[in-house]
Design brief:
single chain; about 475 residues; alpha/beta; Spore Coat Polysaccharide Biosynthesis Protein SpsA, Chain A; UDP N-Acetylglucosamine Acyltransferase, domain 1; nine-stranded parallel β-sheet; 10 helices; elongated; binds uridine-diphosphate-N-acetylglucosamine; binds calcium ion
Amino acid sequence: MGFWSPKYGFESCPPSQSLEVIETVSVRAIVLAAGKGTRMRSTAPKVLNEVAGRPIISWVVDAVRTAGVADLTVVVGHGAEAVSEVLPAGARSVVQEKQRGTGHAAQVATAAMGDLTGDVVLIVPGDSPLFRSETFAALLSAHAANDAACTVLTTRMPDPAGYGRVVREDGEVARIVEERDADAAARAIDEVAVSTYAFDGEALVAALGRLTAENDQGEFYLTDAVGLVGGLGMVAGFEIADHAEALGVNSHDQLATVEAAMRARINRGWMTAGVRMVDPDRVYVDASVTLEAGATIYPGVHLSGASRVAAGAVVGPDTFVIDSTIGRSARVWYSVVRGSEVGEYAEVGPYASLRPGTVLGAGTKAGTFVEVKASTIGRGSKVPHLSYIGDATIGEDSNIGAGTITCNYDGFRKHHTTIGSRVFIGSDTMLVAPVEIGDDAITGAGSVITRDVSPGALAVERSPQQEIPGYAERRARKADSEGE
Ligand code: UD1
Ligand code: CA
């Protein structure tokens, strides 16, 4: 039985057919990731932009590995060090000092890979994170099944602008023409090449050796290798139906499109796995997040980092959950939850901020306009309204009145507040830390508590109420006489 995961889709392994291919010939992959991404207008390397919380390059490398290809050479250049850092152990990175085109990048890679005789080389672009491992595996199967020296992955784009066009002669792939070098007839072709190829090793090396930079950009184009390999053997096309898989990221516009497609894929996966999404177009779940069947996610929810939402929990609307766990049947709405644990049946929000180190026990409440930081709130205890709880420990079944503040900071250091079980903290209590409130104790509303309170005691700190009879009338009379 297959299982679903956001990284790998429904199957953890590629189809068995492709595994056979990989067992009989050695398949080695090249990932092209040296480009600057000029069109992003950013100093950061393009392939490090994140899609659903993971760098683009990590999606690509993962898909290649899941397709069963372990031998991986990544061509890095722009931001080489930063890109190499996110690569998995065992991946070889080679530096393309000057980015002289995709063909040049492939030359740099093959030069570092040693003898490629008898090998199949899978080449994929580092900027296209939507490719699924199944697609790479299917390309390799097709390549093994045909007698071609090169199999080009193609698709039909509704808007092929910017992509290399696949020129066929008598149905066979003859060459690829880049848009900027294409005439009107070639531009009208909607079958495009998407920088993904399976090459026989020797044919690849030979074709790369013949590349010239005679084109509009003066670069060495890998696409030209397809035309050049023709003299060495057949070129086959392998067309995929889902053109969205081949979308690359060259601009922020395309990054947003790709991100939306990835998000839709992730959300579909979770819904199939039993998660309810009230409006999936407005739910943002990073690849690193785990959801249990039976969870409900409302619109405007962003789940990221090492977060987990348990069965029966209801999250949103309009909530951020970062590196946090939401327990069974908990409810979190209109809130920001970071580095926190929300226990089962707990209630958070509306408008709560849980900061790192917060642990809410089962059945607790952090309600409206409540901020909690580095604090543990025990089973059944409630902080319903307008409070700040920082660096505190609260026992079980205690109630913290509206407007209560743990004054944890003296201007130099943070101090701890300890509140026992079954404590009743009156509204607007200031708990000046370090301070300890014993079990079953009570504080009077409006008190500034600076000393420990014994178990079962009432602590009140406020001046006695005075009453001046007839004061309103006297005041009115005074105003009248002043007016005369
Ligand atoms: C390339 C293809 C085009 C295809 C399109 C989408 C060429 C000449 N064109 O165009 O046919 O339709 O991708 O898949 O191949 N890179 C390097 N070193 C370089 C230049 C690029 O490593 O010197 C890397 C980039 O980091 C990127 C990939 O190669 O990951 C593709 O380069 P990019 O500049 O995005 O090519 P496109 O213009 O999109
Ligand atoms: Ca591209």
